Amino acid sequence: MDAPRTTTRLRTILGHLGRTLSCDIVAYPTSSTVSSTNFHPQEFQFTLDNNILSVEQRQFYEENGFLVIKNLVSDEDIQRFRDEFEKICREEVKPHGLLVMKDVSISKLKPGLSEKVVSKIQNFQEHQELFRYCKLPQILKYVECFTGPNIMAMHAMLINKPPDTGRKTSRHPLHQDLHYFPFRPSNRIVCAWTAMEHIDRNNGCLVVLPGTHKGSLKPHDYPQWEGGVNKMFHGIQDYDKNNARVHLVMEKGDTVFFHPLLIHGSGRNKTQGFRKAISCHFASSNCHYIDLKGTIQENMEKEVMEITDKRHGTRSNSNLKDIWTSAARLVKGERINL
Which of 203, 235, 295, 315 has a CA that sits 20 to 30 A from residue 273's CA? Predict the structure, then answer.
């Protein structure tokens, strides 16, 4: 997309939000204030008709690949999730299968486990309290708009973006989540990402490239960053630098739902606090697994299996499908394929 068209597109999005041309989008207007002019329901391909989303909300997601619902998760729930995360960091609880990740620039300076070292926890499907996020009725109500009634929770994580040490390792490169997924179709997959506190550009909010969900999956690899990069933080190697970028400013409890092909990332945390968010990737249980051999995802699968073997200290004969199958949990409806 050339620069004039990109600028026009960004002006259109911000115009619907009543804003001038800038790079920040406050979360709450994006969920309800987009014109539905010249858009017909039969043209919807990324959302389903279940009378939850308005025509305007569906149009916004169809055009941009994301939708923010304001104040969806309560302060009480968020505090409970925060408390459980802190217990894990203090090693008071050790859920089976939990993957604890540390920022590459901090872990060497601060050995051991603490909230100031842990940058992310993943696969908490065996932790009853944290996994409750993936079953919240208000979350699933919107998830069903994208997946349909048979819903699998495929991948859950709580992100604790640390203050940047100056090496810029708290950044997350621009990427597409589908890069990590061995299941399809992509249009029946969605991420729910909830801010656990006020999030803006200072503490590393999400940045999205609107409309990129309409494209294809692109090759990913580690970015060539001087300060280093965290494990499995793959980024898109070749994308249109002129594509509009918008930064999602979110309040605690705001939740963004986005398509797995949407190009997105996050910037540095330039504050002294830890920026927290909790999320889950959901998919229709009607989705199916695919063979990644010979595809642009093959190297990713090899890396994941190497990490898994190293973690367990043994070499297994399993593949990425086996890992996802064992981690996936039915949260609504009937389990069919996944």
Answer: 235
Q: Which residues contact 25 (CB under 8 A, 6 or more apart)?
A: 13, 14, 17, 19, 246, 247, 248, 249
Smallest CA-to-CA distance from 105 within 226, 229, 202, 205 is with 229
CB neighbours of residue 94 within 10 Å: 10
Strands 264-266 and 206-208: antiparallel
Q: What SS3 state is found at 120?
A: strand
For 118, the token pair is: 């842990």
Token pair 């989303």 in the structure block, residue: 53
The distance from CA 304 to its chain's CA centroid, rounded to whole angstroms, is 18
Element (H, E) at 284: strand 275-284
Report the C-alpha gap between 197 and 297 in whole angstroms: 34
- Give yes or no for residue 17 having a pLDDT over 60: no
Tokens of 111: 């050995």
The answer, as to whether pTM is greater than 0.90, is no
Radius of gyration of the chain (CA): 19
Assess whether pLDDT exceeds 50 at residue 29: no
Identify the CA nearest to 256 among candidates 183, 184, 205: 205
Q: Tokens for 323?
A: 């890992």
Q: Is 170 helix (H, G, I), strand (E, B) or coil?
A: coil
